[in-house]
Amino acid sequence: MNPIDDTADLGFASRAVRAGQVRTQEGEHAEPIFLTSSFVFANAAEAAARFSSGTGNIYSRFTNPTVRVFQERLAALEGGETCIATSSGMAAILATCMALLKSGDHIVSANAVFGTTVSLFNQYLSKFGVATTYVRLSDLRAWEAAIQPNTRLLYLETPSNPLMELADIRALADLAHTHDCLLVVDNCFCTPALQLPFRLGADLVIHSGTKYLDGQGRCVGGAVVGDRQRVGTDIYGFLRTAGPTLSPFNAWVFLKGLETLTLRMRAHSEAALQLARWLETQPAVARVYYPGLASHPQHELAKRQQSGFGGIVSFDLRGGREAAWTLIDATRLLSITANLGDAKSTITHPATTTHGRLTPQERAVAGIGEGLVRISAGLEDVADLQADLERGFRLLG
Ligand SMILES: *Cc1c(COP(=O)(O)O)cnc(C)c1O
């Protein structure tokens, strides 16, 4: 009952609003939430047919109509064949590894990936005989040197958190395919509104829907996008068996979030660029990390690979931890929280929060200093964000 059956030829913003919706006989305009754990059958024969064919709704651990709309919409935006939604971003990463790896396999991962991803690889996958080697995100030679005969996945996020370093997705996809590996890109920071990893050769795209897909800090969830065999069969098989599926309510929040994704990512990017340029003029600031700045060492790659520079900006304060904490504590508008991708701007001290579990040496290698501050630019007026930070800058003299 959708007036538009095939949204494939529509533009990105149109797909973000329209893809995946199927109207019921009620003629609803907005997508309904199917809060139901199971589904009924017309008769015993239909029940038997659904169970034996594996198609059609049976139980919401397997499929749910609201979750399906979100999955189809995100797949349409990323340009992937299919998408499977998960209960969190971490569940998306776990499901990918459980479905595609076996004991004796090897991962090469960027060292600058989400901290819990490193814990998942090191504490849990290692117990099942899957080893991980970490390399610097932007060092193509290091990636190549780390690949072993048993390497199956190259894993990365770009831009990285919190230093906004970029990976050359095209070059790493070529490298992965030369060595019979898959390139997995966590596209959480850019979202498909700013970066399309499949167009650059990536095999799988991971999302934490918790961040920009929701966009207002409400629900935890995630997704994997990719081809029908790996995602639609292998990863889906793990999910319906092990159960870290997305709830219909959270799927609904995310699919409504996707409708405004294009506008929000543009606004986040504009605010972050304005903040980054302004921060560069502050005497207390030693260095600003933002791919949209001409001073960013990979600015050209960012312009080529992304259609916007994203909402995250980090900077080093000359005064170390004391200065960072002074600046953070002086804010009243920015929220002191480690989350990101929200309409509300957030401010974080990575060295003592998101990266606090690393040793000082590990932090030094990763380039995360005591004076580093990360901001996720929200949707408030930039002038108000600047005024909020200025209070702290005045205290720093
Ligand atoms: C938050 C985050 C994750 C984990 O997602 P959850 O939804 O918190 O499980 C993975 N990757 C990146 C880049 C993230 O920011």
Automatic annotation (TrEMBL):
The enzyme class is: transferase
Task: Give residues where N6-(pyridoxal phosphate)lysine occurs.
Answer: 211
| Alphabetical list of Pfam families matching this protein | Cys_Met_Meta_PP
Under the heading PROSITE patterns, the entry gives: CYS_MET_METAB_PP
Q: In which pathway does it act?
A: Amino-acid biosynthesis; L-methionine biosynthesis via de novo pathway; L-homocysteine from O-succinyl-L-homoserine: step 1/1
GO cellular component terms attached to this protein's record:
cytoplasm
Q: Which reaction does it catalyse?
A: O-succinyl-L-homoserine + hydrogen sulfide = L-homocysteine + succinate
* Subunit details: Homotetramer.
Q: Which NCBIfam families match?
A: O_suc_HS_sulf (TIGR01325), PRK08133.1 (NF006003)
Its protein name is: O-succinylhomoserine sulfhydrylase
Q: Which organism is it from?
A: Candidatus Competibacter denitrificans Run_A_D11
Report the gene name.
metZ
